[in-house]
Amino acid sequence: MADAPTPVMFAIIATNAKAVQGGMAPVFMAKDEQEQHEIAMWLSRITNAVAHNLPGGTVIMTVNDK
Hints:
Blueprint: E1 6-14, E2 27-29, H1 33-47, E3 50-54, E4 58-65
């Protein structure tokens, strides 16, 4: 049986700068939830990534490591 690909977080999209601290992924700051969803939509289309909504209003983008 083949190993499943490991998801890799490559971007964070937040509306609250205090909710994001540290880490190695680039952080995109959105002015509101609408802009946050638009950024996530464009990043997912461009990179074939998956957007994940986390509690607290943060979205992370992941791709599968091949």
